[in-house]
Amino acid sequence: MICIYWLRNDLRIHDNLALQAATHFDHLIILHEINKEEMGAYRKAFYLQSLQHLSDELVKLKQKIYFVHDIAESLNKIPKPKQVIASRSYNAWELKKEKLIEPPIKFFDQNTLYQEKELPFTIQKLPDTFSAFRRKIELQDKFSADPIKIDILPPESEHRLVSLPLPKIEQSNPNFLGGEKAGLARLQHYLWDTNKVDHYKETRNGMLEFDDSSKFSPWLALGCLSPNTIYRELKAYEEQVCKNESTYWLYFELLWRDYFKYLSLKYKEKLFEPGGIQNKNLSNIKEDSCLLEKIQSAKSGDDFIDANIKELLATGWMSNRGRQNVASFFCKELLLDWRLGANFFQKHLIDYDCESNWGNWAYLAGVGTDPRDRKFNTKKQAEIYDPDAAYRKKFLS
Ligand SMILES: Cc1cc2nc3c(=O)[nH]c(=O)nc-3n(C[C@H](O)[C@H](O)[C@H](O)COP(=O)(O)OP(=O)(O)OC[C@H]3O[C@@H](n4cnc5c(N)ncnc54)[C@H](O)[C@@H]3O)c2cc1C
User: What residues are in contact with ligand 1 under a 6 Å CB criterion?
Assistant: First the structure.
């Protein structure tokens, strides 16, 4: 039987349950539908590098990736009997795409820390606040699977597929090299080589130093790194080197990531609606394209916000502190439709992740899971997190 592996946000060979399952078939064909979203140069470069790296690694295993325009159409070009396998997805758009696929897909649950079967509640009963989710989850023992290593893959079979060439990379950020090799190297660096994780809780709000936070998110977003691998290494690090509040906090943040994925699964399209999961009536929202253009080109007039936008446009990155302030300013100060902000981040962030991005934007717009409807005071935030204005000087000068 032919196995067709539909590669999605699982661009890795290590710790890949789907690829492991593929080894049991007679033949294997690997497909990836090229992402057609409009992307800023840095996001695009990271994506293409990740694809290229995986493609090169698969060649070493005598396999290749077929890059295609349309997954459903491409599957028709492969003779039966066949089994399609893929990593599961969490958002309405991807779930919709899956429904168009024939024959039914076998899914692998491998891009969250806790698999759905490990949750102590059904998706419908998922708590509507992160705190309640975390408290329940933390009572569960976390199982950390052993690393999966794949040395051999089945050969291809006859078909009529033609692979599209990958577009050329125009501009990349040297700090973020796409692909699992660079992702694993980043994990090794942040834990074992530099012990930066020991101080993560104190530095995570920093905006200037690369190692202020883990920077795992771009590799997690495309599945070049798996949460399971991070967790396994973190536990080993805690046993062998240091276990403290900071190492716990990294785990805590990974729970946020899981939470947004499951929240998106629970609320599906609602997550993208103006009133969000709360069905809120946002009657004071402005449709002001001039204001939108101003903030998107770092001309809002608030230097803390503008520095963050400049960083995003110049690197594809913005810190978590920056993202919170920009989103709050966008929705609560300028009163712009939060979905336009989410779209803007979607285009530019190197680590764009549908559920984390839209979930966090909805949260800050007051239509998501935050029971308090908070507004950040950007002046105060700048005083706390950029007291000598070094960050603002770096990006505004
Ligand atoms: C408006 C807004 C938009 C965002 N968009 C994205 C996005 O598109 N992709 C994305 O990965 N994160 C997004 N985040 C969450 C967060 O800002 C980033 O995950 C984090 O800044 C990535 O840096 P890091 O890897 O150094 O994180 P660390 O602080 O080192 O945290 C470790 C990991 O925990 C997870 N994490 C941390 N904070 C959050 C959070 N608030 N929500 C979900 N997961 C979290 C990430 O996977 C991260 O890599 C957004 C936050 C806001 C406020």
Answer: 204, 213-217, 220-221, 250, 253-254, 256-257, 260, 319-320, 323-324, 327, 345, 349, 351-353, 356-357, 360-361, 364
